Amino acid sequence: MTPIMSKSEAARHVASARVRRGLSWARIAAEIDAPLVWTTAALLGQHPMTREQAERVCDFLDLDAAVAESLQLQPTRGADPAVLSDPTIYRFAEALSVYGPALKELVHDEFGDGIMSAINFRVDFARRPDPDGDRVVITFDGKFLDYRW
């Protein structure tokens, strides 16, 4: 029996097919009618896809059933430590290290004792034109979970 393809290998197949076909992540997300950031994360191995989503994206990208099978697996979430040295990803970590304590205080000030869920969660991405250079707009939208004693 052939082992199931790893999610990282499936992600490499998806990324290669996307580049070779000249497709944006937005176009792929539209094809499977799913949110842009979620779709991109799923195709990079961070979320399981439904059978229908996996088969549809593989048909669209002309990828085989082995990739579709892998895209349906439960992931091991998180980034490889080597990925954290990428300048774009590092800047996200830097922004949270600088503004995280202030955001924590503001969450507690506004909502009380609790946390923002990263499970009941949405994230959105947009580009906003600005005379000084276009702006990257990222929105985290998580359910507030209060601590109950």
TrEMBL record:
Record-linked CDD domains: Cyanase_C
Residues annotated as catalytic: R91, E94, S117
Keyword vocabulary terms for this entry: Lyase
Top-rank taxon, per record: Bacteria
UniProt xrefs under SMART domains: Cyanate_lyase
EC identifiers of the protein: 4.2.1.104
Pfam families noted in UniProt: Cyanate_lyase (PF02560), CYNS_N (PF21291)
PANTHER family in the record: CYANATE HYDRATASE
Record-linked HAMAP family: Cyanate_hydrat
Function of the protein: Catalyzes the reaction of cyanate with bicarbonate to produce ammonia and carbon dioxide.
Family per similarity comment: Belongs to the cyanase family.
UniProt cross-references to NCBIfam families, sorted A to Z: cynS, PRK02866.1
Protein name as annotated: Cyanate hydratase
Gene behind this protein: cynS
